[in-house]
Write a structure and sequence with these properties.
heterodimer; A: 461 residues; alpha+beta; Alpha-Beta Plaits; five-stranded antiparallel β-sheet; five-stranded mixed β-sheet; 14 helices; 17 strands; 36% helix; B: 459 residues; alpha/beta; MutS, DNA mismatch repair protein, domain I; Rossmann fold; eight-stranded mixed β-sheet; globular
Chain lengths: 461, 459
């Protein structure tokens, strides 16, 4: 990600416009090659010298930021290290202790004499001692040879610089979002699987969102919990990280509220057609169902002891969102569909990550989910199964250690009585958003991460 | 049945109140608002005590799942008789419901005030300090005083205990998750807290008891007024002049003015003219808060600008490191060769230049903790007679043996200058502290020096 201050952006009224490189690409390539050439000439020399040489590259006022951006990115790719053949800390301790003793003695302070004494004691020279005294400072770091003598690596580096010069549009937009306090995403006809994956990412990053239906789609307003009280960029990094997932849903428009620059000016950053970011193409989001969920699905499908009962159901990765307007969404992980009737029971695994998540599901279930859902959470979250009575149409399974496929099956059977027959679904209290069905077997793409990392991460703190 | 009661939970630095019927929604305190994203009521975590009081006043019973802090098993194992002003400070803090700022000069025993406050409330406590050095000092002090394992968050450690110490940076990062685990927070050097990011650390914590400690709450950006909201009002204040002699070491400040040689003067004026002319041509006013960033930006854009930046640096270097000034430093180091001296500079480059020239240890932000500790130990046991530093020793770090401070260069900040004086004022039998400030006459530095001495301690 580019440092924010090197994003090529300008203000237009209350909007922040990111400038694409466009016809200056050639200039950027030339500049990148020159900067890399300077690095090559400084192998074996110090960072201080290298940075000074880079600063001397004369570019017009318009390209100062471009130069600095390229320098930052090239510097990242270089290998600058402190000298390993010296121990400046012990050298300093020795030199300074001798200097103090000498200052207090009748001889008085004599810099040259002290350095000569240390040099003699270490079988070195005064010049070497001077050079080694602070050899561990950042400016004294030495540029190793990341560039091969045959020039291959130089070309690679130049290529990298050229790629940087292209200024990946997403990287620029992500850098801008580091200063975002909230983003509003308009989604039209977003595939449910992509939407599930996106919501999973948002939850994973502890972002909150409000999903509202609008004409022709859904509007997601994404921010963090304390955004209700003040505009804080506390969530900027999470918003930036979530951007690729947002783009994968092929949104129609993204608008971010920013606090920009030192003055933290409230600006808007809008991504809308014809931005190259909005290609209209939907990209599968690389995410996988957690291992413990896949393991349950696998046991339900192939365990010989369960076969008799499990055959009653078709087990598949969930492709629906249970949407309770004004209250929230439930994103099931997989479903059990009774083969004979088509009645469906959804299963969402909450793992042991968030007790809040369990309580939120309880609330949603109390308000009526419309379709039966089995929530599976770890016993470690200390929530009683009794908080969800059978009459609620949902069930809470607090598992100890690993999820038992047998219990899942039993609970699903019990919940079936609450499942509407397929034809009756239209009258359900909640709205069900459905997408193309995908089998769970080997289906890693497009799956939700659900509420947090579901048992694969420990609780922060 | 408890499940039917409204429930208060801590969530990502906020308080989430669920299960309230709409009939009682309106009377909640101002910052507790409906959050449509989660269909709950939400308030900043720092409103915990106010929210509980408001709910109690309205006789609304709730299940409190937000509070995850505990009471300490015992108070300090080591008891020290407090000084009169320390007892007064605690009394004033308790009167303010255990939420407020105590202003005491460096060396007056602010940490003991914190220990007294922790003992009084006996809640899980987080101490927030600005640097890892201070975190280490607090860790050692609390371990010795309470005889307990002390948690540390930051500097590569993440160990949360009923008594935990952390830095402001780590508090900003982690209180979003840990803000419900402490009933009391001590903000050491609390003038750091009102910055936009650090302030979130205070808002993300539910701790009803909050103690701010500082010698100088005033900030150049005026944001110290936020301390009222983040911690509480200033409940007690004593300045250096009130405590010097009896509770702090007696001291004297010596202002030394040195001159540039004829050649240096000419060079200084010539370089300054180049720099000033660039400012004037580009309409940059350095008195304007944006002046400096404008100069940085414009100077990078042209050869003229780069020359102006070089001129600015050179004239500054001539003022900050005038040969006559360095000669005087040499004289002082000789004069005080049997004392313990701290030398202060405005920037790291000058700090390292002095270290090289006078062969004395330097401490900057680049100095690793291990070496820093060894240097301070060396100063205490006499291995070294002087240590030069830029800004890292300005505050907090305990150097009780230091009795001479030499300000070679500095900013115009009154706080920085008072803090530097504070470093040598810790009371020792027969100790008399001396602060020298060496300024190059007829340069911009003379004006900077006037500004930073605008404090009772220098009158």
């Amino acid at each position: 990600m580019l440092p924010v201050d090197l994003v090529h952006a300008r203000r237009q009224k209350d909007r922040l416009l990111v400038t694409p490189l466009g016809d200056r690409r050639e200039q950027a390539l030339w500049l990148a090659e020159e900067l890399v050439g300077i690095a090559e000439a400084h192998v074996g020399r110090t960072r201080e010298e290298l940075e000074a040489a880079w600063k001397d590259v004369d570019v017009g006022a318009r390209d100062v930021r471009l130069r600095d951006g390229l320098v930052a990115l090239i510097e990242d790719a270089l290998d600058l290290d402190a000298r390993e053949d010296v121990d400046p800390v012990s050298l300093r301790a020795d030199v300074f202790a001798r200097a103090t003793a000498r200052r207090r003695s009748d001889a008085g302070f004599d810099r040259a004499a002290i350095l000569a004494e240390v040099a003699a004691a270490r079988a070195s020279t005064v010049e070497a001692i001077e050079a080694e005294l602070y050899a561990d400072l950042r400016g004294a770091q030495v540029l190793r040879a990341p560039l091969r003598a045959d020039g291959t690596a130089i070309a690679l580096l130049a290529e990298r610089a050229a790629a940087i010069a292209d200024r990946d549009d997403i990287a620029q937009a992500q850098s801008v979002l580091l200063r975002a306090t909230r983003i509003v995403v308009s989604l039209r006809d977003a595939p449910v699987l992509a939407l599930r994956a996106l919501l999973g990412k948002l939850k994973f990053h502890r972002l909150l969102f409000r999903a509202e239906r609008s004409e022709g789609g859904i509007v997601l307003t994404i921010d963090g919990p304390s955004a209700l009280f003040e505009s804080t960029t506390r969530y900027g990094l999470a918003l930036a990280i979530a951007l690729p997932s947002v783009l994968a849903c092929a949104p129609a428009r993204i608008e971010a509220e920013l606090r920009w620059g030192k003055e933290r000016l409230p600006l808007r950053f809008v991504i809308e057609p014809p931005s190259p970011l909005l290609t209209g193409e939907r990209v599968p989001i690389e995410s996988a169902l957690p291992d413990e969920v896949l393991a349950v699905i696998e046991r339900l499908r192939s365990s010989p002891t369960l076969r008799a009962k499990a055959e009653r159901f078709e087990i598949a990765q969930a492709d629906v969102l249970l949407d309770i307007p004004g209250l929230g969404l439930v994103v099931p992980d997989f479903t059990l569909t009774e083969r004979s009737t088509g009645r469906v029971v959804h299963v969402e695994v909450l793992g042991h990550w968030s007790r809040d998540a369990v309580w939120r599901r309880v609330e949603l279930a109390e308000r009526g989910l419309g379709e039966p859902v089995l929530f599976c959470a770890s016993e470690r979250l200390r929530v009683s199964e009794a908080v969800l009575p059978e009459s609620s149409g949902a069930s809470l399974y607090m598992y100890k250690g690993a999820i038992s496929a047998t219990v899942v099956l039993e609970r699903a059977e019990a919940l079936l009585v609450h499942a509407p027959m397929p034809a009756a679904k239209k009258g359900a209290k909640s709205r069900t958003t459905k997408g193309p069905r995908a089998g769970a077997k080997g289906a890693a793409k497009g799956a939700s991460e659900g509420e947090g990392p579901k048992g694969r991460r420990r609780e922060p703190g | 049945m408890t499940a039917t009661l409204p429930t208060l939970r801590f969530h990502a630095g906020t308080l989430e109140l669920t299960g309230l019927s709409s009939a009682v929604e309106s009377p909640l305190p101002g910052r507790c608002v409906l959050d449509p994203r989660t269909a709950s009521f939400r308030a900043p975590a720092s409103d915990y005590a106010d929210l509980l009081r408001a709910l109690r006043d309205k006789k609304i019973e709730i299940k409190d799942e937000a509070r995850a802090y505990t009471e300490l098993a015992h108070g300090p194992l080591v008891h020290r008789e407090p000084r009169p002003y320390q007892s007064e400070a605690i009394a004033a803090w308790k009167k303010a419901r255990g939420a407020g700022v105590v202003v005491l000069p460096t060396g007056a025993g602010k940490t003991h005030v914190a220990v007294m406050a922790i003992d009084d409330k006996r809640r899980s406590t987080l101490v927030v300090a600005p640097t890892l050095d201070l975190v280490r000092q607090w860790h050692d002090l609390l371990a010795a005083t309470f005889g307990e394992r002390i948690g540390v968050v930051g500097g590569g450690e993440h160990d949360v205990q009923p008594l935990t110490v952390t830095t402001y940076d780590s508090a900003y990062l982690h209180l979003e998750h840990l803000g419900h685990r402490f009933g009391m927070i001590v903000f050491d050097e609390c003038h750091h807290l009102p910055s936009a990011t650090y302030a979130l650390a205070a808002r993300h914590a539910i701790a009803p008891y909050r103690l701010g400690l500082t010698a100088t709450p005033e900030r150049m950006d005026g944001r110290e007024s936020l301390l009222d909201d983040l911690i509480g009002p200033t409940v007690y204040r004593r300045d250096i002049v009130e405590l010097a002699g009896e509770f702090l070491a007696d001291y004297e400040t010596v202002h030394v003015s040195v001159s540039l040689s004829e050649g240096e003067r000419q060079e200084y004026e010539a370089e300054r003219a180049i720099y000033r002319s660039f400012l004037s041509r580009n309409g940059i006013r350095m008195s304007d808060p944006k002046g400096w960033s404008q100069f940085i930006m414009l100077s990078a854009r042209s050869a003229d600008g780069r020359r102006a930046m070089a001129a600015y640096r050179r004239q500054r270097e001539l003022a900050f490191s005038a040969p006559a000034k360095l000669d005087y430093v040499e004289r002082l180091l000789w004069e005080h060769r049997h004392d313990r001296a701290l030398l202060f500079t405005q920037d790291n480059a000058t700090c390292y230049a002095l270290s090289r020239r006078f062969l004395m240890p330097a401490i900057t932000h680049q100095t690793k903790i291990k070496e820093r500790s060894a240097i301070l130990k060396g100063l205490a046991d006499g291995t070294y007679g002087a240590v030069v530093t830029s800004k890292v020793l300005n505050e907090g770090v305990d150097v009780p043996d230091a009795n001479v401070a030499i300000v070679v260069s500095g900013s115009g900040s009154v706080r920085e200058h008072v803090q530097r004086l504070g470093r040598i004022l810790r009371k020792r039998d027969g100790k008399f502290a001396l602060l020298y400030e060496i300024v190059t006459a007829q340069t911009a530095e003379a004006y900077t020096s006037e500004r930073r001495r605008d404090h009772a301690a220098y009158r």
